[in-house]
Structure formats: structure tokens, C-alpha cells
Specification:
The chain has 19 helices and 12 strands. By secondary structure, the chain is an alpha/beta fold. The termini are far apart. This is Aminotransferase class V domain-containing protein.
Amino acid sequence: MAKKIIMFCRHYVPPILLLPYQTFQFLYPKLSFQVSRASNHHFHNLKADEIQTHVPIETKLSSSFITDSEIQSEFAHHAPGVARMNNGSFGCCPASIISDLHQWQLKLLRQPDHFYLNELQNRILESRTVVKDLINAEDVDEVSIVDNVSTAVAIVLQQTAWAFAERKFNQGDALIMFHCAYGAVKNSIKAYFLRAGGYVIEVPFKFPLNSNEEIISEFRKALEREKGNGRRVRLAVIDHVTCMPSVIMPVKHLVKICREEGVEQVLIDAAHGVGCIDVDMQEIGADFYTSNLYKWFFCPPAVAFLYCRKSVTNSDLQLHHPVVSHEYGNGLAKETGWVGTRDYSPYLVLPSVMEFVNRFEGGVEGIRKMNHDAVVEMGKMLAEAWGTNLGCPPDMCASMIMVGLPACLGISSDDDAIKLWARLCKKFGVEVKIHYQAPKDAEVAPTTGYVRICHQIYNKVDDYNKLRDAINQLVRDGFTCALEVYICSAFIHFIGL
């Protein structure tokens, strides 16, 4: 009798208990993935025949917001004694998300056959749906998950190389980009577009900036000049937030100009996009948009997305992942969802990240505003302390801002900027990026060095005070980059190298 009771409980009670949930899911599918961390643990242990396709919802904001002590606990794994003001390079990942990442990894390793074949694609679809809602895309099929922006850019540029090979493009057809485009993106342009026979229009980027009009004017002039020379511009590659020097680009206006001037396609490189600035595909109107999710959206490395506008996705455009695997030809979203056996865990934490950001007042928008206001305040404090200036008006910066460094530091090259960066890191425990800006003609006592500071939720005022005091110490000590080079050269000569 006891054995019969056990068998009944094992085989019939779980479905009975799950029936209300499954009914609710059927009637309200958009609400089916609202699960707490505790229910996530149970959910991950469901049997294969109990797993359904779930669609993330627009999570309601918590009525009890995260506290300062909880924030510090989430980032207690950061190296102690280091002032991290360089979130823009590699981002940050909270402890709770790292824990979820490990759970996904264990789930994969526990039974890889089942996970890869029966579960992975449903989970990736959930993450794609989260991104679709974040960026206000029209359809989830417009969103593909990739490792990083470099992969996304390669996908777009690869199809231009094929267009030249298949004679859809003519030799000398052009791509337009700004001089400040990211180095890896420039290399992709060389590898795919230039090598195939294309021509690159490089728009000057004059820094520091006073207004968006300076950017818009240079872009329009470059387009009109090349069109006047008979160039056909096939693709524009535009940053949403430039890396170095860092400013928000007026992408909506630049996309509008591209449409007016007959540029066929527009790719927005938004490595610093989601979590840093407002991202809305319907308003921006680009053909392609790519953003990392580990820089400003708390995901672990490496996860990003590529948005392809529906009209582009449904055209005869050949978009494929650079790594050819079993899903080749089945659509970009499927191709990017399987590029061979690997750890896809970073792709799967997006629902948990949404839960995390919604622990903050205002959610992702609240975090963005807080970071922007804080970085502007700290930027102004540093500029005043050093007697310098900001690199752009506050409304042209996101969660990063450029602050002029004292001219007496003698930054006269990119190499000097690297030397100062290394000194700040090694001697003072300060992590920032340093930018060299060549002086303009007839400029007197120019500021040629700028520091890029970032603000993320874990930063404190003490971090920026530490940077301020480090620079002031170098100035008091009479440090210059030229002297640093001289001392290094003399030491090398002394030891006979």
C-alpha cells in the first residue's frame, strides 16, 4: 500500500500542482516568465517534459529598492584598494548574476545532451525577447545574440564583401565613418570592405566639442562632397557613444541625413549602448544596431546583440555568422544561437539581469540618470581642481565624461597617454583611460591630455578624490611624460640594454 502511495505521488501529484501554473501560462503567455530567484532554482530543475517556452515580461519595479550596503555586497569581489573608474572598457557583473551564471554552467555540464538539444534555444529566445523589449524593436526576429560588438560588425561588413564579389557593389563604392570610430571596427572595415574594393570616407572629429551641430555639419559636408564626386555610399558606420574621446553622437539626426542623401544602409555601433543611454529602434531608424550587454547592463562577458531592421531581415541580404555551423542558412538568429559547442551561459542571464536592474528606483532609466548626474558632478569637480575644462557639454555625455588634464604633465602623444595610464594604475591604484588630443592650430597653452572617467553604481566619491589627488601629486612632484621617457632611456643605457 505504501509503495502505491509513493508511486501515485511521484507520477500524479506534480502535474496536478503544475496545472494552475500551466493554465495561467496558456492564458497569459507574456506573464509566464515572472519568477523570483527562489522559483528560478526550482524552474532550472524541471524535467524536460515540463519545460515550456517562456516569454519575459516587462518586470514591475520593486517597492523595496536595493540599499547601498546591498550594492557594495554585490560588488565585493572587486579588487580592494583600486579606484575603478573605467567601467566603459569591460563593465561589471554583480555577485547575484555571477551566481546565476554558475548555475547555468552547472546545468549545462550536468546533462549537456539534454541542455544543448532541448533547452538552449528556448532560453536564448527568452534573452532575445528581453532585448527586444529593452530596445523597442518591432519583432523578436530582429534580434540576434552574439558575443560582442566586434562579431556583430563582422556580420554586417561580411555581407558587403560578398556584395563586391557578386558585383552587387561596384569597385570604389563607399562606406562613411567618423575618424573616432573604434579601432577594432576600423580593422573590420579594412578586412572586409576595403579589401573587397571599397572606398572609405573618414569624417573629421574635432574635439573638444561645444555642440552637436559641429558633428552634424562635418558629416553632411563629407557626404555632399563625395556624392558630388560621383561616389555611391553603400553603408554608414556611426557610433552612438564614442569610446575615446567619449561623447554621445546625435544618431537620430545623422540617420536622417543618411536617408536624405541616399546612403543605403546605416550601422550604429553602440558598444556603450543599453544601460548607458536611451535606446529605441523605432526612433533611431537604423538598419543595424549593435550593443554590448556586459559594459553597462551588468551581464558577464561576453554577450551582445545585433538588431537588424525587419525590412532588412526580410530582404535578399545575406547575413551570416562568421563561424559557419549546423544552422547556416536558417536565419541569423538561429545561426548566432549555435556556433558550435561552447559555453552559452552568458547569453542566458538576461532575465535575471532585468530583475537586478529593477531593484533600483526607475529601473534601467533610473540607473542611467543616476550615473549621468554623478559623472557630470565628478567631472566638474576634477576640472575645477585641476584648472581645466570638460571635453563637451554635460548633455553630450552619458555615463562617461572627458576631463582635461593639467598641461604641465606634457602629454604629447598616444604613447605618453599610455605611460600616464600605467603610472596611475600601478602607483596610485587608479583605473581610468587617458586620451591624447593634438593641439589645434595657433592654440596657446593647449590641453592635450584628457582623462575619461566613468560612473557605475558601485563607484563612490572617494574614487574620484583619489584620482584628483594622484594628478595633483604628480604635478607637485614635477612629473612630465617627457621626463618619464628620459629616465627610462637613461636607465636602459645604464644597465647596458
